[in-house]
Amino acid sequence: MCWRGCHAVPSCAACRLRLLLRRAVHTHAPGIQCHADWLSLLNHAAVRDQSGQRYVYPGRGNFLHCLQSTSRKRAMSWFKRAMGLEAPKASGREGDASANPLGLASGRMLCLDSSLKLLLDGHSEVVVPGDEKVWAVGRVDLGQSMALHRFYLDNEDYFLQVVSNGPNPEDVQDIILFGYYSAEPITDKAELLRLTGPSSKIGLPTCEHDGEEFERQWGTSTGQTELTPLDEDIVSPDAAYRVKHLSMLYARETGLINRREFLLFSVEEDEEGSITLTTAVGITLQTTDINVL
User: Which InterPro entries match (predicted)?
Assistant: First the structure.
């Protein structure tokens, strides 16, 4: 059982990362067990076991590079997110899975129209994934029967976000496919202020990303506006937990009809108090783009 209480295969990315780390160094540092040790290993590449013996690893960058194909992707998926057109007011906990829109649920297969890749080429940086199973489901209660659903895929670089007021196709208000661009761990208040405070670009009316200019979707201030708070309840086959978000959404026109590209910043705090700033880029989808098996 992992530190969050997950069983056999940990459900949360943080637990999976720690499992990989434990397996990677167990033969060299069997006394290293606690959460703080693993954070120390990631940040400083040196830890002490329970006897006080110090173990030094070959540099944080080299160590993470060895785990790049699995651990970093899983760590990134730990950070759940994203949003529709108006800044919502969040409340409530995860409801019945039968209320999910489009028939999506954990274990179901999400199949996107194969023509999307060609359609989006040159218009959006989002790379459409192949057919993927849904692993976990997140929900944010927006009030007045509206909910924001997030479906996290086995390919943990992606999640599908659906805003709806019911489970039927006609209830769907907005669909965005998001891919994670980056995730920056925040270790202290000074770092948080640097990344999201008055000197940050986040919250300003416009934001440039990879040579494209995005317009802020939430807030009416002519200057920098505050981030929007959201509480997301996430359920997977192995665990249920909550992630708190402070988010800001931007969008731009792509030149395609009914296809906008989105830029989502989110300061995310898990139940253990770990904080990360994530950046995700998304693209509008239509119900006709989606087939669920």
Answer: DUF2491
The DSSP element (H or E) to which 257 belongs, if any, is none
Tokens for 154, please give them: 């086995």
Please name which of 273, 182, 192 lies closest in space to residue 227, comparing C-alpha atoms. Answer: 192
Q: Give strand ranges (E) for 3-108.
A: 46-48, 54-56
Angstrom distance (rounded) from CA 118 to CA 113: 10
- Among residues 230, 229, 233, the alpha carbon closest in space to that of 97 is found at 233
Q: For the chain, how many residues are written? A: 293
Q: Is residue 3 part of a domain?
A: no
Measured distance CA(141)–CA(201) in Å, rounded: 28
User: 204 with 216: CB under 8 angstroms?
Assistant: yes
Parallel, antiparallel, or unpaired for β 206-209 and 212-216?
A: antiparallel
Specify if 8 maps to a domain. no
Residue type, 81: R
DSSP letter string, 85-143: SSPP--B-----GGG-GGG--TTPEEEE-TTHHHHHTTT-SPPPP-SEEEEEEEEEEEE
What is the tally of structural domains in the chain? 2
Per residue in 165-180, pLDDT (tens digit) is 988 888 999 999 999 9
Q: How far apart are the first and last CA of the chain?
A: 31
- Structural domain including 238 reads 80-292
Residue from 98, 45, 96, 51 nearest 67 by CA? 45
Tell me the pLDDT tens digit for each residue of 144-201.
Answer: 989 999 999 999 999 999 999 988 888 999 999 999 999 999 999 999 999 999 999 9
- Asked if 281 and 203 sit in the same domain, the reply is yes
231 backbone dihedrals φ, ψ, rounded to 5° = -115, 120
